[in-house]
Amino acid sequence: MRCSLAALVAVLALPSLSISPPGHAATPAKTGKAAAQPSLDTMKRLVKELSSDAFEGRAPGTVGEEKTLALLSDAFGKLGLQPGNKGSWFQDVPLVEISAKNVSALSFTGGNSAVSAAYGPEMVVATYRTTQPHVEVKDSPVVFVGYGINAPEKGWNDYAGLDVKGKTVIILVNDPDYEMTGLDGPFNGRAMTYYGRWTYKFEEAARQGATAAIIVHDTVPAAYGWNVVQSSWTGAQQVADNANGNADQSAAIGWIQKDKAVALMTSAGLDLDTLMAQAKKPGFKAVPLKGVKASLSFDNDLRKHMSKNVVALLPGKTRPDEYVLYSAHWDHLGRCQAAPDGDDICNGAVDNATGTAALVALAEANVKAGPTDRSQVFLAVTGEESGLLGSAYYGDHPVFPLGKTVGGVNMDALSMAGPAKNVVVIGKGKSDLDAYLNRALATQGRVATVEPTPEKGFYYRSDHFSFAKHGVPMLYFEGGEDLVKGGTAAGMAAAEDYTEHRYHGPKDEYDPHWDWSGVEADLQLYFDVGRALANTADWPNWVAGDEFRAIRDKSRAGQ
């Protein structure tokens, strides 16, 4: 464990935290109470600090984690919150850091011509196996498995009649119907389902027994460019630790550039575009690449460590055993693929120093506003960037019973594009929490809209999903794209610019010229929704027929 007690105590002593002092006069909220508005000064100071180079990108298991844990626990303590986990601010999350080295090219032989993909610019590879210092895939038969989906409830199985043990599977990203214009189709039309997420692709390949699983990168269905894949996959990877060392996972998982996949299929006498079209149709059958064998090898530096979720509690006054949850992930990528100017720290200012700072600002505002009927939990989780690891661990090992957790709000990458006429609700219409948001929006003269790019699968890309899977209604919304200045065109352009130039890269840095007015309005929504939920006796649920409704009903049975 890298974060020793001595180191943590030393960092706790750092005079770095800036929270609005008790006498700070906030701009009055619409309720007329200064205490009812989260402090923008607190937000600005904490985002700037959390995303500074001193925090080295906040990767789990690094000095950046130590400083982040110290800052958050110190902040919550100064505000008068209680340590949430039996007297501790922290919940241990066992992880293994795996750093690939000596990575060979991914080579394909046996076709009409040899194809080779270089590590970094043309392919990336890793392993989830936490006790395997050397991985070698040698002469593994290659099979194209379309979208790599096994969905019995939809009558869809890309692995039907196929034995992939010992083989390398080539998989398409997203769902078969992501190019549809509407939301009707076997996989919800244009809206991505969990079957479209890269995490699912690897999970299913492992269940099927594949030795290696390689996803074909394509910018539109992936929703990000190769630069994001490269920066996210070429550094140290965080993997959940467990008793079997993830021995049931594929030996190698990774991505390959589309042009290399085209060359691979051509070498086997196949056409990738034709295969992609076939894979979209029900009844698709996997296609072996006759005679083609895959090979690669790499070594791993393995380091077990105990990362941490931060858990702070603001007790309720009349129903303290019922909980409202605020969540945000504190982690980012740490050191990553260097920019042309040599900068190799992925600071994660927007993603997600903003959400982390919001936890503190909201806790501060709630302390000033006075206790609510229900308890409020402020949860900063680790490992989101590696696959929602910290929130998944909390979901499996909850500090507070999930059946007694009323609902919550997740905050991830607040928008710095300026004030908007709307907010985009990821998963709009799934739960009763929409009504709470709509009431808060009405006080601002704003509206909730559905996500404009449902094919990007944002619902499955942040920590609310880990709690939803256990039945807890969660609200996840983002600053809207219909900007006050410039409208939807300006908002979409700002989002695309961030994704292309800063997301998961060294240039996601604090900018003193940011327009914080949109964040200020969104912060007020988080506060109003959470506080309303904490002061009601209602138990919001998922709407009838939703995928999480039965789970919630079961967890609430008898209460």
UniProtKB/TrEMBL annotation:
The keyword Magnesium does not apply. This is Peptidase M28. Transmembrane segments: none annotated. It comes from the Bacteria. It comes from Sphingobium baderi. Keywords: Aminopeptidase, Hydrolase, Metal-binding, Protease, Signal, Zinc. Coiled coil: none annotated. Residues 1-25 form the signal peptide. The lineage of its organism: Bacteria, Pseudomonadati, Pseudomonadota, Alphaproteobacteria, Sphingomonadales. The keyword Metal-binding applies. It holds the Pfam family Peptidase_M28. GO terms for molecular function: aminopeptidase activity; metal ion binding; metalloexopeptidase activity. GO terms for biological process: proteolysis. Residues 309-517 form the Peptidase M28 domain.
